[in-house]
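Protein modeling request. Please complete all fields; requests missing the sequence field cannot be processed.
Requester role: graduate student
Desired output: 3D structure, token encoding
Chains: 1
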Amino acid sequence: MIAVIDYDAGNLKSVEKALAYLGETPVVTRDPETILRADKVILPGVGAFGDAMGRLREYGLAEPIRRAAGKGTPFLGICLGLQLLFEESEESPGVEGLGILKGKIVRIPESCGLKIPHIGWNSLRLRPESRLFQGIPDGSYVYFVHSYYMRPENSAIVAAVTEYGQDLAVAVETGNLFACQFHPEKSSEVGLRILQNFASL
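Delivered output (201 residues):
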């Protein structure tokens, strides 16, 4: 069973529909016991870092998420769900993230002619041994909507990079933890393959 965590942060339906299309039976939930029993867990989300952390705490989800990630359950963060895994974000100074991954979330720098937020399709440079991107050609395009990106303490966990004015780390993979800044559920065949790879772990 794949648990998709519901904390009122958007894009749940598109994630649920993509998984159902792949033949999975996702359970959208905010029940801690369901999350801890799940074979795999997905933390999706769009919106602001501080608001999202407030809702995770309000619904009593922060600790179950840390426990699920800590006990080795395959865990996928998507977009805001990736950002929340880190310790802090420039978007919401003073708000602590989940702290499952070391590092911080920083704003994409203003560059000549580039719009912030970054919305649209960009290609990926992939880490060859990545399990999440198995069978996906280097240079494949995925769909982004974001103004912030991750700066992990350990660069070895970066599984994919995109170029938007500069190189941005946009996916991580370490042990049972996987996360994408882009939206696989909105990234056509490439995105479906990423979700299939996760579901097959």
